[in-house]
Amino acid sequence: MIPYNFTFLSHPKICSGLKALEVIPFELESLNACKPLIITSEKWSRKKLTKTIVKALYDSNIVIGALFDNAPARPSSTIINVLSKLYRERGCDSIVAVGAGSVVNIAKSVNMVVSLKTEILECAAMTLSAPLKPFICVPTADCEGGEMAAMATFERFTKKSDYLYPDVIVIDPRITKNATSEEIANCALTSLSHAIEACSIDTPNPINDAYAHTALQLIYQYLPKTIKKPCHNDGSVAIVNAAACADTAFSNAPEGIIHSLASIIAQDTNYKPGTIMGILLRTSLHAKLATKQGIRPELLLALAGIDTYAKTKENERQKVAYDYLIKCIATTSKYIPSTLKKLTISHDKLKEYAKEAAAKNRDYKEKEYAELLANAWESK
Amino acid sequence: MNILYYPQVKPKKKLIKRIYIAIMLWIVGRAIQAASKVDSDVKDEFAKLNNNFCLKMWIWPNGPAMYVGKTNNGRVKYLGWKDKGYKPTLTMTIKNIEAAMLLFTFRESTAIATARNRLVVDGDLPDACAFVRILNIVEVYLLPKIIAKLAVKRYPKWSQMAPSRKHFVRIAIYVRAFTF
Amino acid sequence: MKRGAIMQLPAYYEFCNTVKTIVGHKALEQIPQSLKVINAQRPMIITDKGVEQAGLIKIVQAAMQKSKLKAAAIYDTVPPDSDIKMVNELAKMYTSKKCDSIIAVGGGSVLDTAKGVNIIVSENASDLMQFAGYGNVKRKLKPLVAVPTTAGTGSEVTSVAVIANHEKNIKMIFGSAFLLPDIAIIDSRMTKTLPPTITAFTGMDALTHAVEAYFCLAKNPLSDTTALAAIQIIAQNLVNVVKKPSDTDGRLALALASNLAGMAFANSMVGMIHNIGHAVGGVCGVPHGVCMNILLPYGLEYNMHKASQYIGELLYPLAGDEVYNATKKKERPQKTVEYIRNLIQDLHDATDGKHPRFFKEVVDKTGKQMVPKEKLVDIAKTAMSDPAQFYNPEDLDYNDYMMVLEAAWEGTPLDKKKIKKG
Q: In what order do the strands lie in the sheet with A5-8?
């Protein structure tokens, strides 16, 4: 069924694979830039990724305005102000973020400040109406979701705008393979949740479905081997590709119940959004299967491929899709618990989370949020 | 926070790779010049090109480069690596030195490199098609079969290129390219 | 990598799709708000006489009028081939009427002209030539809204414009991500009055884009999923819409499929079908979609030995899961070709024989044959100069082109034994 009323936008150019980092100078040049501010975290400079990045820029016309490798775990006005000052003083004309989560959010926030020439909190309140400075995202495999989407998170607010998409996403195995199994698991679960929520809306559309399905296929195919051996070149690249596609699908669909709850719980605790999403997704799928609407049978096509989909009888596709999804989530069971009870979250807090989620995302009632959390508390 | 801890960084050059690519471009340029004299297919391809044909194949942004052109009397000449005021009618820009390494160590064929956007072709596109055909023929002559098969889409069978022709022309190209 | 499941991650790929796509039966009505958000209020409409005479510009204007947006200028005589003189003329008009954005309503050449105009007015340039080639447009241009009126060329999602300089007898190619329109409007009203014959071959054009994107050398995960989605929609709707042109749901579906196919091929390029098709169009003036339609099964046959697995997978979106399941894996590629030939035959029947199945039966309005057999030699020679061949899985030389052209002229399948395998 083709819905008759939708809008779709994906902005980033994806450059993925062997020697992808080396395209950065050419891509910056085509955006009329040659002096980037590179932002990353100390974790990656310890693993010598900064050396890899600088070497990749050899033999080009790039001058790195500054390579800042001390991005903290959470963005703050202080760090944004420092980096904006650094950007201006060095005469930079673009930003390259190497990392995920806070690194990318800081980079996007700095981009807003230097482009709009005002403080971050003012930027948060403004409606962006023109492109920001060129921004290249080089994701690592510890993605938390949203890095490659049309949004930026700063302290407790999330700003959504088409202009917050990166201009270019560079996915290179030399960068992505530096991941632990737990990080791969979190990244995959975030992408899985985003993709499934994006294509399970009331009026799905073929364009968004294509992005979501790409994410699902890549995760299903590559997760088992990558989680065992994250340094496997192909696997980590595939998982990060899935994250990029899932982020686009997520940006083009209403925010789902799982994302709303997971972002609140992750903000409040030290758990990664992927951990929470994995638990909630398992519960949500189980509940959805029992409803009249059920799970979209096309998810089976996306996960398992044409052969399996065609072989499965029409009336069995939903159940088989569910089985495939649970199997996929189960590959992360060594690193991600299966219920909220197993985390160090107080049961009393669940009500609070449900209330906060309902206030933030009114597409669902507080009762629905509470029910999902309650079911996810213990194995059902 | 002392921002002086984060100085400006001017990336260096990859000297050894640049030298390797420069040598490879020199070999290819000289081989094309030689092949244009001894191989009938290469001669035919060049004959169809205008006399102002000038190819620049180079690595963005600072070279190395290879210039090959036709002189006024229709002769094909390797013009060197320096820009002496040539007016290229066809430019093949390889986006970075690593992409050039993939191409010139035959880990990626010309077709695959093009499909992967490693290079940008500018100028007279019909001439680009002719040039790629010429390059394919030259690679078949220059390289042993096991490597040439990686570089070209379809290695010529016996019926298309008799072994005697291949070996004779190969020797002629090597002699011409590396001597006069 | 074992190819049991679908997705093949290439060692390296690039994918870029920055166009905001608005789809719906009333998508045109969103133009004013979309322009307002990017600070544009004085659009120039660029179109051609055919579109204007079909009443489509009036529909666009009426839709815009609902939000009180009026075009500051309208130019409706873009020729079938975009020309630099026209581009310069339009740029002058744009400046004199103080426009701040462009709405291009039409097919490929209208879009290309609009892209050319956008370069001149955004860069304040006097000479378009300095921007020719790839990557020479480096800045965001003025807002450009693309409203395709066929389903279609997919030009609303390509970053390339081809503009002819008829005085110097050259074609200039401009390639840059900044040439991509800001917005593409997919509205069923724009293709509702498309005659059945044009619906048929523009639909086959879109199908060819998707099919070639799926099996050519630059394929990648996103181009694969968008291509499969496009193929399925076209297979389910094309013949129905040709038989029932007033089916607006079907029209919208085909327009969306063309957009998806455009996204796919803009990123994974096309191969020999377009390679030879461009040559036939250039030498004999045959419409692009007609060439694509005829050559599609031959492109699949020629590349079968190199891309059989992908061609076999195409059976699913073309024929559905039952047929796919019932066909043995080894037989699927050939069955795909059979389905394409059946589709062409169905379109031929649905248009009372006007939709050609092979080059021998392509005729112009006076009934004169457009592709005489003697011209095949010229076509083959021209095809050798088209760069689309780079992306084709198998190589082609002059003899290969002639073999394919002769078979496509007669309407006989290719003799697999004669295909040289690399």
A: A5-8, C20-24, C183-187, C144-148, C101-106, C43-47, C73-75
CA distances from A361 to A146, A189, A261, A353, C78 (A): 17, 21, 9, 12, 49
| Set of chain A residues whose Cβ sits within 8 Å of the Cβ of C322 | 310
A210, A234, A307 ranked by CB distance to C225: nearest: A210
Please indicate whether, in this complex, the C-beta atoms of B154 and C394 are within 8 angstroms of each other. Answer: yes
Displacement of CA C155 from its chain's centroid (Å) = 6
Residue C12: its chain B contacts at CB < 8 A? Answer: 116, 118
Residue to test with chain C: of B96, B154, B159, most C Cβ within 10 A: B154
Instruction: State how far residue B137 is from chain A, nearest Cα, in angstroms.
Output: 27
Looking at residue C29, the DSSP 8-state letter turns out to be: G
Q: List the one residue out of B129, A96, B114, A61 whose CA is nearest residue C12.
A: B114
C330-335 LR contacts (CB < 8 Å, sep 24+): C333/C300, C333/C304, C333/C308, C333/C309, C334/C304
- Residue B160 clears pLDDT 80, i.e. is over it: no
- Partner-chain contact B132 C173, CB within 8 Å: no
List, in sequence order, every residue forming a beta bridge with C366; answer none if it has no partner: none
Burial classification of residue C1, based on how many CB atoms lie within 10 Å of its CB (0-12 exposed, 13-18 middle, 19 or more buried): exposed
Residues near A292 by beta carbon (within 8 Å), at least 6 away in sequence:
none
What is the Cα–Cα distance from C65 to C283, expressed in whole angstroms? 44
Instruction: Please tell me the distance from the alpha carbon of residue C120 to that of residue C116, in angstroms, as a whole number.
Output: 7
Cβ–Cβ contact C389 with B under 8 A: yes
**A5, A30, A218 ranked by CB distance to C9: nearest:** A218
Q: Label the pairing between strands A5-8 and C20-24.
A: antiparallel
Q: Note the pTM of the prediction, 2 decimals.
A: 0.95
Residue B136 CA to residue B141 CA, distance in Å, equals 9
What pLDDT does residue B165 have?
A: 84
Q: How far is B120 from chain C (nearest CA, A)?
A: 7
In single-letter form, the type of residue at position C255 comes to A
Residues B134 and B76 sit within 8 Å (Cβ to Cβ):
no
Secondary structure class of C102 (helix, strand, coil)? strand
CB pairs under 8 A between B and C: 59
Test A66 with B11 for CB contact under 8 angstroms: no
A205: contact with C, CB 8 A cutoff: yes
What is the complex's ipTM, to 2 decimals? 0.95
- Cβ B97–A66 below 8 Å, yes or no? no
Please report residues of B whose CB lies closer than 8 A to that of A54: 9, 11
What does chain C come to in residues?
Answer: 422
Q: Which residues contact C319 (CB under 8 A, 6 or more apart)?
A: C235, C335, C339
Integer Cα distance of C394 and C422 in angstroms: 7
Q: Is A94 helix (H, G, I), strand (E, B) or coil?
A: strand
| Identity of the residue in B8, B18, B116 whose CB atom sits nearest the CB atom of A59 | B18
- In this predicted model, which residue has the larger pLDDT, A5 or C167? A5
List, for residues A274-324, the tens digit of each pLDDT value. 999 999 999 999 999 988 888 999 999 999 999 999 999 999 999 999 999
Each residue's pLDDT tens digit, A193-219: 999 999 999 899 999 999 999 999 999
- Per-residue DSSP letter, A131: -
The position carrying tokens 């005021």 is: B85
Q: What are phi and psi of A276, to 5 degrees?
A: -65, -45
CB A325 within 8 A of CB A301: no
Binary contact (B12, A90; C-beta < 8 A): no
DSSP code for B73: T
- Say yes or no: C269 contacts chain B, CB-CB below 8 A: yes
B153 with C384: Cβ contact below 8 A: no
Among B10, B14, B18, whose Cβ lies nearest the Cβ of A63? B10
The pLDDT of residue B157 is above 90: no
